[in-house]
Amino acid sequence: MRRWWATLLVACALVAGAGGARAYDILFLGGVVHGPGALADTPLPTGKIGAVPLDGQLRGATKYFNNGAEPPNIPAELEMEIYGRQGARLSDGTPFHENAYGGIVSFGQGALKMLNVIAGGGPMQGRESFELDGKMNWLIRADMAFDAGFPQGLVITPEIRIYTGVARVPPSLQTAAGARGGVDRAGSLPTGAPVYGMLGDLDEKGVLAGRIVGMSQVPLDFMFMPGGPLVVEREFSTDVPVTREEAGLLTYAGLANLLEILAAADDPAPAVRAYVLGRAPAYLDDFARRARSAQSHLGAVGPRQEARAGQAARIAATLKEQSELARSWAAAGAIPPSSRKAINDALEPVAAELPALRQSVHFSLVRN
Predict the structure, then answer these.
(1) Of 112, 242, 302, 327, which has the maximum CB count within 10 A?
(2) 143-168 per-residue burial string, b: 16 or more CB within 10 A, e: under 16
(3) Are 93 and 6 in contact (CB under 8 A)?
(4) Which residues pair with 64 in a beta bridge?
(5) CA–CA gap between residue 117 and residue 262 (Å, rounded)
(6) Cα separation of 149 and 104, whole Å?
């Protein structure tokens, strides 16, 4: 079996709920795998994590479940007979968690199909943990497995970190070790490029939703693009209820992530600078939409959140203005000082609030 700090954050799998906390479902609505290495970006199927117990801090840990070939079975046990015949075990005999399903990912236009599940027996013992970090991004940890159906095609990532915040595409293992021969990109993404998620309720459906990202490198002896970086992006929805205030605060806090994304425009690598500057208008439009969502949610709360609703409105206006100017940033090769100052002035008050906001926030887990 091969173990790697890689990521297919995406098909996170798991669990039967723990003591006392109500259990919820996380539905993955497709997504993209970038890489590994120069392999083309690959679409992801839908998936699910069932019975996730959460408390008022959106914190919890799932329970490992595997009952062999007996029902319930994940869909892949019918789609890929090898897994059903082995009684919910990976190709090397390692059992996997049956209350989660990440789908079957087809790499190379179907040339290689890999089952994405949560492996048992690793550091997380088949469980998955959830918690909010200090910036109010959701962090998920699990032992992720990708299995092509034979032991030489099995990859297990111990304690992979899946995140709704900002991450940067890592270098190849070769480059990280100071050696030659690595491919320093993940599909369409150059090494060093920022990839980011989201946590809130942009659609105002009253439930938690967003996007998760994760990344790592495949092993040096992996069959395709050895040592290459790999990145996963995945949209998700849940049945976790959130109030207008809770959704607004999560979205408001997440606006500060734009500062970290735009900081990559100063990266020493020309490819990263070009990537960020070329996508700057889309970043700004995306975060302007988030700011409007925060304003809508918090404005509905009343006087208690009036100041933050007003700040969110100012951020939305600033980012909308800057998104028009950003269309010339790629040609200029940099973010103009005036634009950088306007964006920083709008977002730094949010970043300054994060420690106090994180300490005070609590989720009722009830609908409005």
Answers:
(1) 242
(2) bbbbbbbeeebbbbbeebbbbbbbbb
(3) no
(4) none
(5) 34
(6) 11
- The residue assigned the tokens 């269309």 is 327
Q: How many CB atoms lie within 10 A of CB 172?
A: 26
CB atoms within 10 A of CB 13: 27
Q: Please tell me whether residue 77 adopts helix, strand or coil conformation.
A: helix
CA dist., res. 164 & res. 251, Å (int): 11
Tokens of 322: 């800057």
User: Residue 352 and residue 354: Cα distance in Å, rounded?
Assistant: 6
CA atoms of 199 and 165, how far apart (whole Å): 8
Could you tell me which of 274, 290, 285 has the C-alpha nearest to residue 331? 274
Question: At which residue do the structure tokens 């480059």 appear?
Answer: 175
Q: Which amino acid is at 87?
A: G
Q: CA-CA distance, 93 to 87, in Å (whole number)?
A: 9
- Residues listed for the chain: 368
Tens-digit pLDDT profile for the chain (368 aa)? 443 333 333 333 333 333 456 899 999 998 999 988 999 999 988 988 888 999 999 999 999 888 887 877 777 666 666 565 577 888 888 999 888 888 888 887 777 888 888 899 888 888 899 999 999 999 999 988 888 888 877 878 788 888 999 999 999 999 999 999 999 999 999 999 999 999 999 999 999 999 999 888 888 887 778 899 989 899 999 999 999 999 999 999 999 999 999 999 999 999 999 999 999 999 999 999 999 999 999 999 999 999 999 999 999 999 999 999 999 999 999 999 999 999 999 999 999 999 999 999 999 987 66
Residues 5/9/15/21 CA torsion (nearest 10 deg): 110
Q: Which residues contact 333 (CB under 8 A, 6 or more apart)?
A: 273, 277
Q: Which of 263, 309, 310, 255 is nearest to 287 (CA)?
A: 255
Q: How far is it, in rounded angstroms, from Cα 145 to Cα 102?
A: 10
For 88, 163, 208, the CA distances from 211, given in Å and listed in that order, are 28, 8, 11
294 burial (CB, 10 Å; 0-12 / 13-18 / 19+) is buried
- In 82-111, which positions are buried (b, 16+ CB within 10 angstroms) versus exposed (e)? ebbebebbbbbebbbbbbbbbbbbbbeeee
Q: Which helix (H) or strand (E) holds 239?
A: strand 229-241
